[in-house]
UniProtKB/TrEMBL annotation:
The chain crosses the membrane at residues 6-25, 37-59. Pfam families: PLDc_N. Keywords: Cell membrane, Membrane, Transmembrane, Transmembrane helix. It is found in: Cell membrane. This is Cardiolipin synthase N-terminal domain-containing protein. It comes from Streptomyces natalensis ATCC 27448. Residues 14-60 form the Cardiolipin synthase N-terminal domain. InterPro entries: CLS_N.
Amino acid sequence: MFLLRYLPFLLVLALWIYAFIDCLNTPESQVRGLPKVVWVLVILLFGEVLVGPIAWLAAGKHRGPVTGGGSTPAEWHRNHSSADGVSPARAKPRARGWIAPDDNPEFLRSLKEENKKDEALLKDWEADLRRREEELRRKQEGAQDGTANGPEDTPPAAKE
């Protein structure tokens, strides 16, 4: 019962957010009727009454047939699409020069090098920890015996 009460509000909010994000992600060349900034303002100002989002979805964006490569303003997609319009994920591995990480010898080699560096660092840390534990153990034994074991235990020299 509680959800049904707020469902219309949530649907309006979802449409408002969708239209806003769609407008922001649409390239300027595909915006129709008004400049993109004006469409953003229309969506934001008239979103609560659904006029802005519905106007954007109906008249604001040129919606042509979907092409093979698609179009998006995202920089990553522009840099990672192939020249023939086929997305790199759907291209044949040999055609795009991409190999899965577990089959890529360079990637596996880099993992081995990183692993060796990490192991060397871990060994250094373990050796430092053993040395510190040994120093602490000697200090504790010296404190129990009443003897001094290091420069930390000796009192400072008196000034003359």
